[in-house]
Each structure stands twice: as structure tokens, then as C-alpha cells.
Amino acid sequence: MKIVLIAGPYYSGGDPEKIEYNIRHAEKYAIALANRNIGFFCPHLHTSHFEAKANASEEFYKELDMVIYDRACDGVVLIPGWENSSGARNEERRATERGIPKFFPKSPDDEECLAEIEHWAKK
């Protein structure tokens, strides 16, 4: 099974409402991928609200995500707004360094991009 990382904003300056929005936004892409049987890793869901539940730093989570990304992910899905996230920009840069595919869906309903990911995942 090929796995894609879902990359997009999470912390957004620490505003709880923005964090919740970012989690739910990323979740929509995770659901769209799951509905097509495409493996994914979504850091937003993996450590949802841990900034309030645990005492680890934001840098710890970024490093954790990058380790999982490097060990387990074969591609990256960069969701709208990714350019505004330092973590997602690092994940995009890492994809270039690793030579793995990058996908840029316009929405969770972007059939053309989802079909492209699905076709790639089944190779």
C-alpha cells in the first residue's frame, strides 16, 4: 500500500478556532482518500489538539511528523493553504528532495486530482 502525507496548516498562531478549522479541513481530505482506499497519514488527526493536551513543543510534533513521513510515506497531498504553513512548506521541500510525488487538490471533492492520486497509488 502506498501512503500519502496530508500536509497543510495546523497551528496558525495557536488560535484554538483556527486549529479546529485546520483539523476539520484536513480531515475532509483524509475521508476523501479513505473513500478511495488510498493510504494516508494525517498529522492533524494523529495529534489532534495535543497542543492543549500535552506539554511537548510544536517543534517536537514537526520532527515526529517528518520522521513518520520519511519512513512511511510515498507521496504528499498539499491541501489549499499549505503555503501558509512552515511545516507544510518543509514537507513540500522534503518531497522534492526525496523525489516523491506531490499532489495539489483544489478541494476534498477535486475528482481529477483524487483520480490521479488513486491511479498512482495502485501502480
TrEMBL record:
Superkingdom in the source lineage: Bacteria
Stretches the record annotates as Disordered: 84-107
Record-linked Gene3D superfamilies: Hypothetical protein PA1492
Residue intervals of the DUF7768 domain: 2-101
Listed InterPro entries: DUF7768
Regions annotated as coiled coil: none
Ranges of Basic and acidic residues composition bias in the record: 89-100
Record's protein name: DUF7768 domain-containing protein
